[in-house]
Design goal:
Membrane-bound Lytic Murein Transglycosylase D, Chain A; three-stranded antiparallel beta sheet; 2 helices
């Protein structure tokens, strides 16, 4: 009698790389002639971002941009001076193995910065950026879906697995020309900016995904003897090529603003009232579809000795979108001087920690919120006051499993403030936690089966029925396997409706 085994290829998402790289940021800068001498240092910062990345074989290459800004005041006036510098670093990572259909997450953050004034015209800056990198790849694992012949009995389990997955990343550049309205003063320098991206709309057409959204940009800029904020929106619409995409797929899109550059131009009156904005947005698209399959979890023969090989397969499931908001409040006290006005307030995040609790079915996100406020003190000099606040937020999610991975980002979406009587600032921030929860249900499946057809199973007597005392909740499969009979035969002989015994009692075991 021939043995025939049907096999199914199962898509498995495997972690290829998980590590952290570091990059020193060093700048020895001499002020150009058009900058005034340094009298009072206000603030220095590094804003890192990833401009692009690619994978070739087992090597990941990416471009890291470090936008440095140095804020100071001169002795002759109290206007804020802004020195922008952009440093570019090309980095490589050896992944140790080639990657099929890679999912790459690269998150840079500024670790520390120290800016020393060497003299009135020279600055020595030292800092560091750390880059957290995760790479997942798709691989195929073989599992048995059906066995025929040699009186093989099978225990099957239903599994929903990933049938096909399409990943595509695209970086776009948006260019927008803006003109300040007459109520706004002309621009000297852009001090800082915030990018807030709307949830993108998406539409599937043959082999392509249309992505539409809007970027809201808020800037803080200097003007003669003052500072101002301005907010404007830039819409975008992009077609992302995704070979094989059709309406049977579900799609997820993640957008992220990477860099934003501003150029200032004079209008017809000669005042700097024209702004040119160039914004880079990273668009990450994931399209997938799943299919139900039935895999063999266990097998035996009622006639011949056999051995089965089993393996735990991490079967990739449908990603779950996470999008939650919460509020955080803080009071920042000024250092003894009276605040004349507040130009702008903002919030950054650092030291994000994500913990997935499978027992409580929850995702806990914690870290530090770094609040900052640009103010004018009673001495008429601008100043930045800041304070950090620890936070923890719990997200309940019934789909969390033991091996779930949460890829989340924490984004301060809006900050509002009120001045207190004690020359402090009460700031309230709306914080958004968004991203994906990737789950892989581990299933124990048969990967191979060998049957010795040269030997027949012998029994310890000549009988057609055997008595067995069953225990409540015992699986009929285990009893049938022990006596080399079939599950259906036991259930029919004992009028059982389920494959789990409802109570203790004697069973008749028919021998087949």
């Amino acid at each position: 009698m021939n043995l025939k085994i049907n096999r199914e290829m199962i898509s498995v998402n495997e972690k290829i790389y998980d590590g952290i790289q570091e990059q020193n940021v060093e700048l020895d800068y001499i002020l150009p002639d058009y900058y005034p001498d340094i009298f009072k240092m206000i603030k220095s910062s590094i804003q890192p971002s990833i401009n692009s990345y690619s994978i070739n074989g087992d090597t990941l290459t990416y471009e890291l941009i470090a936008d440095v800004k140095i804020l100071y005041c001169s002795e002759n006036d109290n206007n804020l001076q802004c020195i922008p510098q952009r440093l570019v670093f090309n980095k490589t990572v050896n992944l140790g193995d080639s990657v099929n259909n890679p999912e790459v997450t690269i998150v840079p953050k500024s670790d520390h910065i120290n800016c020393r004034v060497v003299n009135k015209r020279r600055i020595d800056l030292r800092g560091a950026v750390s880059i957290k990198i995760k790479v997942f790849g798709e691989s195929k694992r073989e599992a048995v879906s059906d066995i025929f012949g040699m009186n093989i009995q099978m225990k099957k389990m239903p599994v929903e697995c990933m049938a096909k997955k399409i990943i595509q990343n695209k970086v776009i550049t948006l260019s927008e020309d803006l003109e300040l309205n007459t109520a706004k003063p002309p621009v000297s320098d852009v001090v800082r900016y915030d990018i807030r991206l709307s949830e993108p709309d998406k539409k599937i057409i043959a082999n392509k995904l249309v992505v539409k959204g809007e970027a809201e940009i808020k800037i803080l800029y200097t003007c003669p003897e003052n500072m101002e904020t301005m907010t404007f929106s830039v819409p975008y619409s992009q077609i992302v090529d995704m070979e094989g995409l059709d309406e049977s797929f579900k799609c997820m899109v993640k957008t992220e603003g990477t860099t934003c550059d501003f150029s200032v131009f004079p209008d017809s009156s000669g005042e700097n009232r024209l702004l040119k904005c160039e914004l880079k947005i990273s668009i990450k698209c994931l399209a997938y579809k799943t299919i139900p399959v039935r895999l063999v979890a266990d097998a035996y023969s009622t006639s011949y000795p056999c051995e089965s090989a089993c393996a735990k397969l991490p079967v990739e499931q449908t990603p779950i979108m996470i999008n939650e908001k919460f509020q955080n409040k803080i009071l920042i006290e000024n250092d003894g001087s009276r605040i004349l006005c507040v130009y702008d307030v903002w919030c950054n995040v650092k030291n994000i920690n994500i913990n997935v609790d499978s027992e409580e079915k929850a995702i806990r996100v914690s870290g530090m919120l770094c609040y900052q406020a640009m103010v004018k003190n009673e001495n008429n000099y601008p100043s930045i006051i800041e304070k950090e606040s620890a936070f923890e937020h719990e997200i309940k999610c019934g789909e969390v499993t033991e091996n779930s991975i949460a890829e989340l980002c924490v984004i301060p979406s809006e900050c509002t403030y009120t001045l207190t009587d004690s020359d402090g600032i009460s700031i309230k921030a709306d914080i958004c936690v968004k991203g994906e929860l990737f789950t892989s249900s581990y299933c124990e499946a048969v990967t191979d089966l060998s049957v010795d057809d040269t030997v027949k199973i012998t029994r310890d007597g000549d009988y057609a029925l055997k008595l067995y005392y069953g225990v409540k909740d015992e699986q009929v499969w285990n009893i049938a396997k022990k006596y080399c009979t079939s599950v259906n035969a036991i259930m029919e002989e004992n009028s059982l409706e389920n494959e789990c015994l409802p109570e203790n009692g004697m069973l008749l075991i028919p021998i087949v």
